[in-house]
Amino acid sequence: MKSSRFLLQPTASAGFLSQTFHASLPGERRRFILKVGPDQPVARKFSRHLRAFEREAAAYRLLRPLSGKFVPRCIASASTPDGSDGLLLLEEIFPSRTGDQIRGLSFSELSSVVQSIGAVHAKFWNSPQLRKSQALPLHHYNRAQEAGKTTLSFLRSCGTLLTKKEAKRVLFFPPRILRALREAKRRPVTLIHGDLRADNLLFAPSRVFIVDWQISARGLGAFDLARLIGGSSARPLTPGDQQRLVGIWHETLQRRGVPRYRRLDAWRDYRLGVALALSIPLTNGPTLLQLSDRGRKIARLMIHRFFQNAETILEI
Length: 316
Known about the structure:
The protein is of the alpha+beta class.
């Protein structure tokens, strides 16, 4: 496929809210990724509701000091007024491999991701610059405030995927989610990715790059950890394993200048994040089941992974 300047080729994988292409200029060695709006009506509706391109463009502007280190360099970005469509031209990370949500991530891979997202969180910890960004609202943690309603919809759509024990446990989730939401509002705020999972990670030889910032927002940094660990670990992790990962994150924050935030605070916030992350399968599970064979596989994995982790960390 040819454009007026770039040669374009679809990437092997594409997100729900966008289409992505490998882009190159004839005779040049530099490689790029071109990201444009989705062509499916359902996806465009979601993108409009989330103002996905407006958010991602705003996030990459803020992330410029970290570009080429933990996120790709953004060469150009634009968004339509309603945020549903636009474009981003990103420098391609090469060589790199994309994480796989179905395969999951090893403990070593999780450790590397935790350091990368920790650097982002530290940069924007209680940041006045972040608070001024109208395009990056406070995160709603996958409609956590509607946990009661989404639980009923989830049981209707996904009930057949649950064991009897899981089906009973789901009814105890909404009060825990809502309590965590209230407590999170009193905790430090930073720039959070909001969808930190294996499919949104690029593993380069010496570091991990985080991509797809379309639902980024202001919020509880430890939510990103809970979303990552609970949803993408290839194997169930013990509380001790997870404390080690939270410790790596906390050390990254301290090393990068976050003051007066104890390891005990980090673990408490992580537990809040684990509770809030239960809203992810409740909200996303029914949608994923309707998308594709891969979507259905991810829905099943996501439900069991998040439910199991909540039992491990919160005993619910």
